[in-house]
Amino acid sequence: MAYTIALIGRPNVGKSTLFNRLVGRRIALVDDQPGVTRDLREGDGRIGDLNFRVIDTAGLEIAADQSLPGRMRKLTERAVEMADCCLFMTDARAGVTPADREVADILRRAGADVLLICNKAEGRVADATHEAWSLGIGEPIPVSAEHGEGIQEIYAALQPRI
Ligand code: GDP
Ligand code: MG
């Protein structure tokens, strides 16, 4: 079985954008409307010489200050069960939201191996990631899925695991 990575996070943080970058094809639907992808999607991902399976999670639209709908929670839990490692994504521009804290709790309760990815961090790395330490997941990795920044840092974190 291939090493499996799940992209976890509330809607609109950029999971599908990172999925497309890792898989190299536009399989996952990216949209300006939060939460347009409504299911789990899988693809073969690659960073340099690392090959892995990637799962993209999706869910229903929620506002940044709302809690996760039950369906999103179930999808997240299912993806966590399937994964060897979870890339927990947050939106560095939006800051840490209550829904992010709920996702962090799900991951903690599941005892998942988690890398904290602060997406949309292009151009303003320092303040974008500082707040994410408060999630208690560990060191945040600032990336820009859209601009392809920080992918080498994800590689460095994954390389010893795969
Ligand atoms: P998902 O709901 O978590 O799958 O998020 P999407 O991948 O659909 O992205 C949601 C929105 O964020 C879209 O408008 C993306 O273009 C945008 N987005 C994704 N990654 C980045 C990034 O690195 N920087 C910025 N500024 N926007 C991004
Ligand atoms: Mg999506």
Offer a few descriptive terms:
5 helices, 162 residues, 6 strands, alpha/beta, six-stranded mixed β-sheet, binds magnesium ion, binds guanosine-5'-diphosphate
Q: What is the residue-mean pLDDT, rounded to a whole number?
A: 87
Task: Find the structural class using helix and strand composition.
Answer: alpha/beta
The major sheet is characterized as: 6 strands, mixed
Bound molecules: guanosine-5'-diphosphate, magnesium ion
Number of helices: 5
How does this model look, in words?
With 162 residues, the chain is α/β, with parallel strands linked by helices. Helices cover 30% and strands 21% of the residues. The protein contains five helices and six strands, in the order βαββαβαβαβα. The protein has helices spanning 15-23, 70-82, 98-110, 125-130, 151-158; strands at 4-8, 41-47, 50-56, 85-91, 114-119, 141-142. A hairpin with a 2-residue loop joins strand 2 and strand 3. Helix 2 (70-82) packs parallel to helix 3. The longest helix is centred in the middle third of the chain and has 13 residues, at 70-82. It is globular. Guanosine-5'-diphosphate binds at residues 9, 11-17, 30-32, 34-35, 37, 119-120, 122, 144-147.
Brief characterization of the structure:
With 162 residues, this protein is of the alpha/beta class. The protein has helices at residues 15-23, 70-82, 98-110, 125-130, 151-158, and strands spanning 4-8, 41-47, 50-56, 85-91, 114-119, 141-142.
